[in-house]
Design goal:
2 strands; mainly alpha; two-stranded antiparallel sheet; 3 helices
């Protein structure tokens, strides 16, 4: 987990080609959250290690027949509390 700052967000944007469906919308959401809540610390958390430990059959669940295993982020979430 890292505090989001402009340098971190710029590095994440450089990786948009690796996750074009996830990174750009997530970066837009972070930018909007930072705009609306400038005094609140914002963090980026990555769950890549979790996806490396799932059982071999799990990447094949809930997908169209014939498509390859999925990887990366499956959802973005926020917590207030």
């Amino acid at each position: 987990m890292r505090l989001d700052d402009d340098a971190v967000l710029a590095k994440l944007a450089e990786l948009n080609d690796l996750a074009p469906l996830h990174n750009p919308p997530a970066l837009e959401a972070i930018a909007e959250a930072r705009r609306l809540l400038p005094d609140v610390p914002h963090v980026a958390a990555f769950d890549t290690a979790f996806h490396r430990t799932i059982p071999p059959f799990a990447p094949h669940l809930s997908r169209c027949r014939g498509s390859g295993p999925r990887s990366g982020a499956f959802a973005s979430s926020a917590s207030t509390g």
